[in-house]
Write a structure and sequence with these properties.
201 residues, alpha/beta, five-stranded mixed sheet, 9% strand
Length: 201
């Protein structure tokens, strides 16, 4: 999570949406406050953030985040956690095929809901309030344009933590089953606006 106290903006760092690149770029902004050090602090979801507003002194600030198409995000998580470098790590899933990986999540055997389902990340589970500005990862260029409008034309996102290319598998055969398990997540994503949002600072 990054906080711009001067412009009253809070950037919530979602997972698998180029968050490391965003934090690197935003961290260059003078006066930008940064909460990280471990995934719990770095990836504070909106529900947790709302409970932190008072001590953070961010009541009334505009919240911003980036989300990813639900099935594509699941595929990205699988590729990331199946990497040989993670062998021996509890997160490693390279011993599972993609179908088993998905079914473990769908059945509740894995506790990854907040990491997988961006509607849960973005909506306060008590009040129903949502992050103010939500950009789609699939239209990351629009998000970069938004940041340039705020921080100047020289602002650019570096390409960090990009996974190495691997032989492609046709994961799409599992899309229908995944969507049937979490229809609200897909409906929520599709209802998000495609156009860039302007902020008056």
């Amino acid at each position: 999570m990054m906080i711009d106290y001067e412009r009253k903006l809070v950037f919530l760092s979602n997972r698998k949406v180029a968050s490391t690149s965003m934090e690197r770029a935003l961290g260059q902004i003078k006066g930008m406050a940064r909460m990280n050090g471990n995934p719990v602090l770095k990836h504070v979801d909106f529900t947790r953030y709302k409970r932190m507003e008072q001590p953070l002194r961010t009541k009334g600030f505009t919240t911003i985040t980036v989300v990813r198409e639900p099935f594509n995000k699941a595929v990205s998580w699988y590729k990331f956690r199946a990497r040989p470098e993670l062998k021996g790590d509890p997160r490693y899933v390279g011993h599972l095929d993609f179908e088993t990986f998905l079914n473990n999540f769908i059945s509740g055997k894995s506790g990854w809901a907040m990491e997988f389902l961006d509607n849960l990340f973005c909506i306060d589970n008590r009040s129903g309030e949502s992050v103010d500005i939500i950009h789609k990862y699939e239209n990351l260029g629009a998000f970069e344009t938004l940041l340039r409008n705020i921080y100047g034309e020289d602002f650019a996102l570096p390409h960090l933590n990009v996974s190495a290319a691997v032989a492609e598998t046709d994961y799409s055969v599992h899309r229908a089953g995944y969507e049937a398990a979490f229809p609200e997540a897909f409906d929520w994503y599709r209802a998000l606006p495609e156009a860039a949002v302007k902020i008056n600072i």
